[in-house]
Write a structure and sequence with these properties.
This is Hypoxia up-regulated protein 1. One of its GO terms (cellular component) is endoplasmic reticulum chaperone complex. Keywords: ATP-binding, Chaperone, Endoplasmic reticulum, Nucleotide-binding, Signal. This protein is of the alpha+beta class and about 950 residues long. It folds into four domains: about 325 residues, Nucleotidyltransferase, domain 5; about 80 residues, Actin, Chain A, domain 4 (Alpha-Beta Complex); about 140 residues, Sandwich (Substrate Binding Domain Of DNAk, Chain A, domain 1), CATH 2.60.34; about 200 residues, Substrate Binding Domain Of Dnak, Chain:A, Domain 2, CATH 1.20.1270.10. It has 29 helices and 32 strands. The strands form eight sheets. Strands 2, 3, 4, 5, 12 and 13 form a six-stranded mixed sheet that branches. The chain has a six-stranded mixed sheet with strand order 19-14-15-16-21-24. α7 packs across α8. The longest helix has about 50 residues. It starts with a helix and ends with a helix. The N terminus and C terminus are likely disordered.
Amino acid sequence: MDIPLWKSIIPLTTFLVFCLQITNIHSLAVMSVDIGSEWMKVAIVSPGVPMEIALNKESKRKTPTAIAFRNGERTFGEDALTVGVRFPSNCYIYFLDLLGKKIDNPIVDLYRKRFPYYNIIPDPKRNTVLFKHSESEQFSPEELVAMMLEKAREFAEDSAGQAINEVVISVPGYFGQAERSAILKAAEIAGIKVLQLINSYTAAALNYGIFRTKSFNETSPMYMMFYDMGAYGTQASVVSYQLVKSKDRIAPELQPQLAVLGVGYERNLGGLEIQLRLRDYLAAKFNELKLTSNDVTKNSRSMAKLFKEAGRLKNVLSANTDHFAQVEGLIDEKDMRIRVTREELEELCKDLFDKVVLPAQRALEASGLTIELIDQVMLAGAGTRVPRVQDRLVKDLKSSQPLGRSLNTDEAAALGAAYKAADLSNGFKVKPFITKDATLFPIQVTFDKEIVDENKPTKQVKRILFGHMNPYPQRKIITFNKHQQDFDFTVGYAELNHLDENEMKCLGSLSLSNIKLNGVKDAYSKHKGQDGIDTKGIKAHFAMDDSGLLILQNVELLIEKTVTGDPEEESTLSKIGNTISNLFKGPEEVLKEEKPVHETPEEDPIPQYTNSTLNSTDTLDKVNSTEQVKLNDTASVAEKKSLKVITVKETINVNHDYLFVLPVQGDDFQASIKKIKELKEIDLAKSRKETALNNLETAILETREKLDQSDYADSATDVETQSILDKCTEISNWLEDDGFDSEAEVLDSKFNDLKKIVMPVWERTFEHLERPSRLEALNNALNNSNSFLEKMKNTTLEDTPFTQVEIDTLDKLISEITTWRDNQVQEQEKLPKNIDPVLTVQTISIKHSSIEREMRYLMTKFTSWRPKKKEEPKTKAPTSPTDNENANVPEEQDNETIVKTESQDNLEKFTLDEPSKTVEDNTDSENIKNEKSQPIEPTKTDEKEKSHSEL
């Protein structure tokens, strides 16, 4: 199943050209961001560019997820890591997994253990994580992620050359409601519109599938497993590819569909854990050398250096069996040089390698498939480059197919998310590729039964809204039939038996929200005592959107009322509206169809609800309404026809109390926006200052260098030269004193002061250097014009399309420009080079343009001219007595006879020609015929070529 890279490159461009058809070239570009724990990748789709990775400032395709603050300056990526080596507490890394976590979460405790030099404090309002950077400055994980997203947009805009504000972000599949809400809030802080959150394994599978649609069919699905080991965690997913019919009733077509069937993961199995163990191993080996009395593990800077070297060593040992770890000046100016073998690394991480197969086995179990049904296990993520990881997968999975390596392990998720971004954007039209993700953490509703007998204890009821591996996006309805008073219910995670105890703690609060319904009694009271009333209960409409977020859309009381009336009285406008509404139901409505969840009687056991419930609310309502409408058996047919059922909906007020970790809200949210904005302004001011300083220093160096060249020195007087050199010295001394700390405006003013005195000299030099080539171009134009004019003068006006006025105009223009040129050149030669010239490049260009404009007009007229053909009387030499007699016939009669003869010849020729012969063929034969009796005349093409060659 491995596809060589060169085979995939050939159809790549062709596919994307057809796949990404731009509907509006002025529409904004879109981007995708694969923000991981260690690296961030950015992809763009812009007009003329199907899909590509946006490069960062260092022209690299991925950027470390790192932010550093030092001396009031903020740096990103590699620059931030450089700061982090010397000042570890100033550089923040691996903060993505702290999103949506309370301070007592096991993940936060593990983070503190791994990176002890950070000062982590609880948020006083939300009890979440805060990095205390200084006494007056602190950052939340949402703010740090917002900064990275802002930097990602900068990379994307630089690559696309236009503004970008829409994004699809890929996230780990094990992110719950709290983490996903935090990601969206971070994007909102950065001022970026999120089109969708997409799971990283779904994005990678989409990137794999869009280039292999021809391999899919309608009858048998193609099953694939994607194994992704990243820096922080490992995810495995089982997906199916299949062609399904679109829901278009007019012209249905087959469309590719990707469905996630099973997912398994290990949150702490990744490259970071391997790197940390290597770091600790190197620290222990260094301490054993006894080169210093200080313990290297107690020094934050030394441990940061070892952490960086461990990352390099991990990558090298993936391709080599041994390597030396080297750090200069590790501690107390002592260097470290330790040889590490791959066997030692594998022994350090033996327990980790034992867990490699677990995510894949869990994914297979969740999908209900066996490894024999999987076409191939495709590798993704940088962690899969470790040889031992691949060996354990082959050994433990026992797949008959070799591991797939054709997917770009670093960029697959970013490119798949970019395709989804183009699909969701209004500016692009892409080939449809349906994606159906799966619910990793099931969600249920818990409520108390309506109290009928106060002596009996209250019974709690649970209803599954979205089960494990249920597809989404999807909508569900839960109906409360017995509640007629205000009540409340809880929404939370359910059936987490597939997770271990520690993972459930990492997930955070299992209760997501508490929902209180107000006005239930009043809604019932409005219709109490009325005839023909059938209450269908309180219906709560839930949705799992494309981003995997649970949304309570609305809650309403549904009542069906039986009234008298003629069904034919329905208005024509209403019929038309219903018809149009039915016609334009798209496939999204089918994917997101509402599925009811019923409330059973109190004494019945709680059933397990699956996707086999009724397909739509409309079906449920029709069944219920049919059952509830009871008519008298003796009623006449006319009376039955006069009854109809109408639906009445009463909206119920909802108080939503979230129980999981909510993102920052209110004033704190506005404060975060302000903080990010101020930091950005500081960065812009810094960038502007650096640019101004660089321009000023460059100008000083270039000015001194140019004055040493004869061309520039001859163009300046002695006074000007001395003035320029004095100004350069003055500015240089100012920079050395306190100029480097000046603002950009002051630096720009110094630059303008220097520019004012050097520009006259530079302009003179430009004139002297450029003048010869401009004069040569003008001379060539005059020579060509003179040649053309001589040809016209030697030709009669009848043989040319020109008038005498046009010829005289050209003659006068050539004479005037020639005289002007000679006079100006003569005057300019009298002036020294350090005096402003009288013959400038601009005036030469104006004269050149005027002669070219006139010649262009004449040549255009000449090339479009059609010469008139000269007709000569045709004579025929007498060859017989009959011919002699005909020769004595008057001229008119002879011409008439000739015309008739030619007509007959043409008619006869026409009938003998083949049917496919064209009019042009006949014309050519006639031309050939005339050549025998008439002198040869030049054709239009010949004349054009001749005239051009002569000119």
